[in-house]
Amino acid sequence: MQSTTQASAFEQLQLKYLQRLAEQYPTIDKAAVEIINLQAILNLPKGTEHFITDIHGEYEAFSHVLKNGSGSVKKKIDEVFGHTLTHADKKSLATLIYYPQEKMDIVKKTERHMRDWYKIVLYRLITLCKTLSSKYTRAKVRAAMPQDYAFVMEELITEKPEILDKEAYYETIIDTIIQTDRAESFIVAMSELIQRLAVEHLHILGDIYDRGPAPHKIMDKLLQYHSLDIQWGNHDIVWMGAAAGQLACIATVIRNSARYCNLDILEDGYGINLLPLATFAMAVYQDDPCSQFKLSGNPKTSSTAETALHMKMHKAIAIMQFKLEGQLMKKHPSFEMEDRRLLHLIDYKAGTIEYEGKTLSLLDTHFPTIDPEDPYTLTPEEQLVMERLQSAFLHCEKLQRHVKLLLHHGSLYKVCNGNLLYHGCVPIEEDGTFRKVNIYGNEYSGKALYDCLESYVRKAFLEVDPIEQEKGRDILWYIWTAKNSPLYGKDKMTTFERYFLAEPETHQERKNAYYRFLNDETVMNRILAEFGLGTDSHIVNGHVPVLQIAGESPVKCGGKVMIIDGGFSKVYQEKTGIAGYTLIYHSYGMMLVAHEPFTSTEEAIQKETDIHTDRISVMAASRRLQVRDTDRGREIQERIDELMQLLQAYRSGTLQQEQSFFDNK
């Protein structure tokens, strides 16, 4: 009896759903046409996915890789034009597509017959665009076009079988574009359309921020990108924490910026006033050379005095960070980070610290703001500085807009088209089992750990309960630095040790066992299964640079795992030997791309130099993949199945079609 009742309830629910569907497709004709349209989409080639990670503020290199689609544009030029264009002409066309206006400005200085040049270029762009657009529906291509030129572009790239003299038709349109002085703006629009069609979707696997000079420009560019998702990295998370007003995160962001000579990101890029910190640092550390707080990379400061000021600011904010972190560790015992509270272990008179059973000398013993009896409490002056900085971060409209993008398009992990994407690792014990991690009194592991942490990240910005919101803000700092954080994945972050201890062994940060199991198929399959994927799927992640220079391969576990952080950041390139990896997944399979260092945008335009890339085939498809082979294809197939049920309901009389006025005549 119960099973009959349940079946009846299910049928009622199914009927109710079909009634809702009938509101969209009220007749057999409309439902049938939609089925035909959706079936056609399933047979299109799979769109190109572009995977990038660990950009670390390197805007120019990132922008170039985005424009060339990790070589996708150049590859398509080769396919379309083959031997009909010289190598030089292909390079010139590629540069034009990447930097259309800049390239045309150069050409105009030497080209005597610009009208002829415009015509040749327009024909080439149209030919290339025709091929690229063949992978998409007309509606999708039309949506990608700039509104002002959409009609003309569609005319040029769409075959018109009803027109007998096609050459004359197209030539008339192109001549009119040139005669009305629209050639340059049309070439720019066509080039941007080609860039969009070359890559259907962008995946960024974390760490947009820190080290490099322009993460804010990267975020501005991503705000305009047509289709993307972001898997947060620990450097993104700490900036999100700063935007949420979490004090330890604010101190960390400023310290990182000071260390890498990037305070102008905060002051000029985001308009955050650092004068309170500068004034405080000059007053407190006026006679302190702060020699342990040298600036990394290439200082942009214009004078010795300015460099000295930045070093004082560097030390001032570092000391505040250590205090604030110590407060958090005491506040949340479940974080299991008591061993990282170090300020109370210092003998301030002797200039030593009791560190893991040893008495070690400190490299810097000047601590004017630390009370040995109460080392983790901010002085009133420090408290005032942090309050003013907190207000600046909370009220920075541009930063808040960027963080909204991270929240809307971002997550801790993503499952997409048979690939599991995350930034760091899945915490694992030495025996290969998932580590159980305590989050506010409850234990989580594997996927559940990711889901729990992500829920708290969103609470930091969306929760109305102030206690839960505060937990969310504090968890942002935890994800940045804790040993059990899946985005950090090391036993400790030795920031204090690198400033104050000379012994190299104290600087070591031991990676989670995950990294020792990367070639263990049993463990990697266990991770895939945990996230609902089969053994033929892939794991893609970044975070730890692959040392190609030492012979390390980014491809692990027979192609099942790909670590695609190869050193986008210039700071890492001497260690890695390259300038980053990207991954391309198109209808013919997966291709890992290794990039040589990017020199400059100016050189790329002037000398038509592209980033040199080496391609490694990771997975060659046995047949050309179609939309039906993707997650979107499965969703479309489900919709087709539902519409077929709707057709059956109309035909069986279960539902009645909507009748028009003329049906009754």
Question: Which sequence of strands runs across the widest sheet?
Answer: 7-3-2-1-15-16-17
Percentage of residues in DSSP E strands: 5-15%
State the total count of DSSP E strands: 17
Assembly state: single chain
How is the secondary structure organized here?
Layout: H1 2-24, H2 28-42, E1 49-52, H3 59-68, H4 72-81, H5 87-98, H6 100-110, H7 114-133, H8 138-144, H9 150-157, H10 166-179, H11 183-198, E2 201-204, H12 215-223, E3 228-231, H13 234-243, H14 247-259, H15 263-269, H16 275-284, H17 304-331, E4 346-347, E5 352-355, E6 358-361, H18 380-394, H19 397-409, E7 410-411, E8 413-416, E9 419-422, E10 437-439, E11 442-444, H20 446-462, H21 466-481, H22 495-500, H23 521-530, E12 538-541, E13 555-556, E14 561-563, H24 573-576, E15 581-586, E16 589-595, H25 601-606, E17 613-620, H26 631-652
Parallel strand pairs: 1-2, 2-3, 3-7, 9-12, 12-14
Antiparallel strand pairs: 1-15, 4-5, 5-6, 8-9, 10-11, 13-14, 15-16, 16-17
Helix pairs in contact: 2-26, 4-5, 4-7, 5-6, 7-11, 13-14, 13-19, 13-21, 14-17, 16-17, 20-21
